[in-house]
Amino acid sequence: MRLATFKHLSSKNSDYGAAEKYLLFGHDEFTNKPVLDESGRLIPCENCRFAILNCGNDDFAIACMKSNLQYGKNRNRGDVKIHHYIISFDPRDSVENGLTVDRVQELGEQFCHEHFAGHQAIVCTHADGHNHSRNIHCHIVINSLRIEDVPLLPYMDRPADTKAGCKHRCAEATMDYFLPSNSSTILLNHPSSRNLSNTPQSYPSSVSLLR
Fold it and tell me: Which of 13, 35, 59, 68 could form a disulfide with 74 if both were Cys (CB 3.0 to 4.6 A apart)?
């Protein structure tokens, strides 16, 4: 298997529903505005997989707003509301190694359970990237607020990083963690996950994962 890129973005947009809409419907790659059909309706993304985690019976937006209200978090304009992680695979892996949208969705959900436990989340896999590049990629969008206590992970350096009612403030450390010196933790339990290839980083970061 070839390299995949792992990227982080964050958003202060209080409209949690916008994240779900962005993932489920087509958007112009240059303007990020929704693409509409001839009748002015949103066009659903083709061949995507979608899962909501830790939201009970609510959709992602409602669940996040309820939790924010319960803990008194994410009330200010300047607060980071969501973190968005993207794992993008080389398009040749689909042909040469049998990588599928379903398999990437499975890996994404497992990755989310292991590294973002306690957060309300969306995991959504698309079969194609910008410019019809055919690279399967997985979006993991989490509420910045943690709603459950979680185990201490190696890149967490404060007790608050594990506590319900506290926010995900270790995104940079999370990205730095996926470097060669910590290669034993690479992407989930994929059979060939053993090493990492480092790429120059800034924050938000992009690192390469060798599966």
Answer: 68
